[in-house]
Amino acid sequence: MGVFRFEHTDYLYALLLIPALSILFIWLMYWRKIALKRYGEWSMVQRLIPAISGNRMILKFILIMIGYALLIVGIANPQTGSKLVEGKRKGIDVMITLDVSNSMLAEDIQPNRLERAKQSISKLIDKLGNDRIGIIVFAGNAYMQLPITTDYSAAKMFLSTINTRIVPTQGTAIGEAIDMAIGSFDNETHSRAIIIITDGENHEDEPIKSAKAAADQGIIVYTIGMGLPEGAPIPEYNQYNRRTGYKKDRQGSTVITKLNESMLQQIASAGKGVYIRANNSSSGLKTVFDEINKLEKTEFESKMFSDYEDRFQYFIALSLIFIILELFIFERKSKWLSKINLFGN
Fold this sequence. Notes:
By secondary structure, this protein is an alpha/beta fold. The protein contains 10 helices and 13 strands.
């Protein structure tokens, strides 16, 4: 069985224009009917101006919308993977553990700590060659977001869904995230690395002990500190994603979240890795990945779909057919169409 995907998924958002345009069209049709009724009874107006066909306009609009939808799908380039290939690759297994606690919404790193981390991870995925990647998110608990894989498209898709609301409990369970990452690697002979991206605040377990356990198994632990030492307030948002202010403590003072640099340095040291502090000019992820690339790349078996075939041409062709058909209806008045009464006019 093959696999289906879109090469450019962002273009699919343009399909959201269809319901908006449909509502606008219905409103214009209603306004047109009200305007014409001012000249007399609707049945009389229709006899006076028989060339005006509401049914024709509706059909033309439907054809245009179908053509538009097919055009957008074509631009997004549907692809099918027709061949499953088994082969061998040389690479490194990298498990990224990403802090999604509310403190990661602080904006001392622009646009905020979490979004900057996600942007950097996305850029890292673009640079991966034969390496495998997985993603774990954590706050009060750790959760597997993406098991270790070579499917970089899936990795970017899962990455895009990450926000602070996907983990129900607050906190910074770095140790639990490390333990989960250790258990996610499937072969002890691979070169393996864990990258922890966090502000390190309010850690609740024993991350140093977990990092040492990883190092004992040959897994290198790297840490990236998201945030500046002076810290920043934590924005709060309502259900409509509008900012309502900043988090306050019980005394009513604004909470300032600060980077726990000392803790992250200790975790990296215990994990035999390095610690990098992010700032507004660099996320630190490139530096860490450069360090990871120095590790010995191990050969492993992999399965993936290859020979993706573009299918955009079919959708573009269908789109043109519907658009041409709409133009044809515009050029010629149809007697049979006048017999169809879509709205019961």
